[in-house]
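STRUCTURE:
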């Protein structure tokens, strides 16, 4: 019997909410180049996923949050969620003040605050992640 090993990459994504809006990036590189997505990216060796989530949010959007303010939404690991191979993502939600602004950084061609009730088709399974974060949010805000 031949055993094959599938490479698995670990990532972290952030649902950043300001008022009734969510922060989305325009992907600057493939896959899904030009499409809207959540800020996020790879977890570095030895890095905790919540630290990676805060780091990626800062790198891609200029929004700085404390790791302590991130609330774990869930792990997203369905095969086929990323055309590059097996990606497993821990997702977090964070709420920021109305005065927080964002700017495009690494891997983001642009950033935009989008009303939660106007979210269209997103890259990867990011719409699913946003819906999961919103289901969890009332308990997080208590």
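SEQUENCE:
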């Amino acid at each position: 019997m031949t055993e094959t090993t599938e490479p698995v990459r670990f990532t972290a994504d952030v649902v950043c909410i300001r008022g009734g809006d969510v922060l989305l990036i325009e992907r600057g590189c493939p896959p899904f180049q030009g499409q809207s997505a959540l800020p996020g990216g790879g977890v570095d060796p030895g890095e905790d996923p919540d630290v990676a989530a805060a780091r990626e949010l800062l790198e891609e959007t200029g929004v700085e949050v404390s790791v302590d303010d991130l609330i774990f939404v869930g792990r997203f690991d369905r095969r086929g969620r990323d055309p590059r191979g097996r990606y497993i993502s821990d997702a977090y939600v964070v709420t920021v003040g109305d005065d927080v602004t964002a700017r495009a950084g690494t891997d983001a061609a642009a950033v935009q605050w989008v009303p939660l009730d106007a979210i269209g088709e997103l890259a990867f399974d990011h719409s699913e992640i946003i819906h999961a974060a919103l289901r969890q949010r009332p308990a997080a805000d208590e």
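REMARK: Helices lie at 49-61, 126-141.
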